[in-house]
Amino acid sequence: QISDLKRQLNITGVLSVVFLLAILGGNVFLLMSSYSNIKDSEKSENYLTLSDIHNCLFSLLDGTRKLQLESDADLYIDVSQEISNIELHVGMLQETYSFLKQIKNEKCNLHSYLVADQIQVYEYLSSAPRYVNVLDFVQSILVNCEELISKRQQNLPTKQNEVFIQKNLLSGGPDYLKKILHLFEDCEMAQVEQLSLNILPWIVVEISAIGLCLLVLVFYITRVDTMFKKLWKSLMKHTRFNIHNHTQKLLQRLSMIHENQEVKPEFEPKFKTKKKVRFTEKCKFLKVVILVCGLCLVYTSSFVFLIETLSVNQLVYEKSILKKNTRLRYLSKELSFWTRESILSNTDSSIEVFLQDNLFFSYPQLEFNSVRESITSNLNDILFSMLHENVSDGIKDIFFSKRNSWKVFSHGLYKGIQMIATESQNLVSSNKLEMEVLYEFDKSVYYLDELLSQVFQSLQREISEKLDFYFNIFIWTTVLYSLVVFGVLLVLFLPLIKKEKLLMKHILKLLKLFERNKT
Length: 519
Prior knowledge:
With about 525 residues, this protein is mainly α. It is about 80% helix and about 0% strand. A two-stranded antiparallel sheet has the order 1-2.
């Protein structure tokens, strides 16, 4: 019995350490898995690449249109500057095109959207379209832009390329890209919001494992208690028997000394044990085990889920801000384009006159109003988020701090975009072709493009730093929690095992002593 009891105590001690290590390992797995999923969702390369394509295409449309308008005496067109801009955006478009060709089985079925023949392409002097996919569409625009630049350098006619570029960039191609952007954005945001739910099954598994460990340890503690009671009863039996023998020997000795005195040979010892004999440290063992498992349970169910939720909420918010600003970049280019075309719509330089048969867009004034409303809506969404969300000072600084930059943005990015929207409305309402004002307005829009590129980098850095901050909190809390739990195990639980082993040794000595007395 003694050896069995020692073995059970050893098993209980070993299991407590193994179970604790397994639980801590499970928490580390939850941590790494959660962090890995969040960092994967943090990446926005595909979305930003699609946005860059749309932005480059509209910049090429704008540049090509300006080159075509260079003969208009009322407009100031810097031809060399526009050719440089076209070359710059052709290079950017080639980079993004190469990136898109490498996308295969990406999430949200992005590849299937890119290879679907959904875009109408109109050849020069042809009203019958052919359908191509995004990659072929971008390739055809690139080819025509390169031909246009080459012909310009050789002083050759470029009307065929200009018509092709303007026709197709005013038709359904950019709209289809917008559709992909919106679908991809919704899909990404839904996946990010799902992250905190995806970890729930793992938390349930971890909690179930903790409960199972608790039940196993309680089983072994109860088993040790049962074995100890049997051992204790055996010890009490030997004790009573030994006392009885010593008493009889003492009586016999007294009988020999006092031969003439009557002495009853039998003696009933009045030795009673407690009715219920328990394993001496059972309650302490159970309290310590419940305490350790309780700490594991609280940590797993609350802190892991809390950090996951905080990280996901922060990621959702800042990705939404990033995507609203992405829209502002290409919408501002559209605003500049349609502001000019609205002013030119009643002149001989109208784009409708140039394209002759307009099948590609509504009236310039309607296009302008639609784009301006979209910009205003995006600005309102950003302001609402700033006022109602827990926004970091870094993000507020990006939008509202004064800048030593282009005058329209001297009071901050948000105010600058508002001023651009207001200025465009004033230009269209006046219906006057003021060369200097239009030129300055155009420069403001292209400077906004540069500013928003910096904003994207700042926002992505802000997202990454915030997620790393949460992750560091998680790591140090896990380390502290592990030290506390191991401290409880080493200071309270394992010493109880050692104490019970010492008690077993004392009982063994007593039993051996009783055996010798029998003989």
